[in-house]
Design brief:
mainly alpha; 2 domains; flat
Amino acid sequence: MENLLELISSPVWWVTVVVAGILINLVSSYLRDLLDVRASRISSWWKERSETAKKEELKYIKRLKTDELFRTLHVIRYTTMRTLCIIWMLMGVIGFLSAVAILGHESKLEIAFLAIGSIAFFRAFQHLMKSSKYLGYAEDALDPEDT
């Protein structure tokens, strides 16, 4: 405790604190300007990307409304995504059940099966989200009179 009181009462400590405070203030003002420029670039890039994606989505939906062959291909895509989701989900279940089956044998296979199951569930979720997107496109392409 005496060392701390001695350190705080020394003029070197106070000068160091003041100089460090000034340096931090200067650096933060330059960093703030740099971060503002970067954030505005990212924001404009994100806005442009979102607008482009929305235009592509509307173009896709318009084509779904008018092109019968494209609608058939869309149904095939949707069905494929749902099928892949189910297949990956089953692989995940098999991976986890395999890990549980060898649980307690202190085998490195247990970790491998858990990893395989986790990856399979992740892939199943990706395919589920993609199929949901395709289903949303199909719903948007329907006319209100059709429902």
